[in-house]
Amino acid sequence: MKFRWRRLFIALAAILVVFFLPVGSMLAVYYYDDNAGYRGFSRHSTTDQAPDASSDEAVIQVYAARAARWRGAIGVHTWIATKRHDENHYTRLEVIGYRVRWGGDAVRIRPGTPDAMWFGQYPTLLREIRGDQSLDALIDRLHSAAQDYPYADSYTIWPGPNSNTFTAHIARQIPELRLELPSNAIGKDYLPDNGIIARTPSGTGLQVSARGYAGALVALEEGIEFNFLGLTAGIDLYPPALKLPGVGRVGFSDKKSFDHYSSDVQLH
Predict the structure, then answer these.
(1) pTM for the model
(2) Which long-range contacts (CB under 8 A, 24 or more apart) does 7-16 make?
(3) Residue 5 or residue 54, greater confidence
(4) CA distances from 31 to 22, 35, 69, 90 (A)
(5) Which residues of 155-168 are buried (b: 16+ CB within 10 A; e: fewer)?
(6) Which residues of 59-74 are buried (b: 16+ CB within 10 A; e: fewer)?
(7) What is the pLDDT of residue 32?
(8) For residues 229 and 240, what is the distance between their CA atoms, to the nearest angstrom?
(9) N-term to C-term CA, the chain
């Protein structure tokens, strides 16, 4: 009996250290930082991470930025930006939660600055694909997947469906993106239609999830991840990195970029 209690204690201690200690540390830093919050935020000024919209190049970009207020200590907000080869503006595809509270549609597909600050937080470019007009077909599929998102009239910060559920859903519909979402993109593991098993957002592996509360995944892109109460911990083998709840990726960057997309070329 003592041995069983000892194993239980060790398991609980491991959960505390792996899943909750990093989150607690991030919250402590947030409340200690006098600059946390909305100060100096702009949702329209560029951070110079996107190609000029006046070019005849087609572009797909995926960004992540710390969420607003205290939520940013725990997780990020993600969105997708696209530009067809003959367009002179970018279109942002994302989910905005407050619109649901006002009785609107959570999905926003509208012109906007692709790489703008998000409530004072600098965005990180997760994925970029550039190409000629052959990339337009992939952009069309992205827009169709966004319009068909099954939770357009609902939004739940934790464990989902939220903005990261939206981005992950689109990535699963368009596996050519090979999109790996950050481990602190809470909601990415919330599977639509009460699903339990699905492809990972990158399309390179499989995951199991119990409504975003608990689960695990194994994939070439994401590596190995474990989800507990919406928090994710794991390890990426190539390039090597730890994935910590709240903190995110600690190790080598894993941004993917393809500058010359062609319909005849398989993305890797």
Answers:
(1) 0.90
(2) 15/228
(3) 54
(4) 15, 9, 10, 35
(5) beebbbbbbbbbbb
(6) bbbbbbbbbeeebbbb
(7) 77
(8) 25
(9) 52
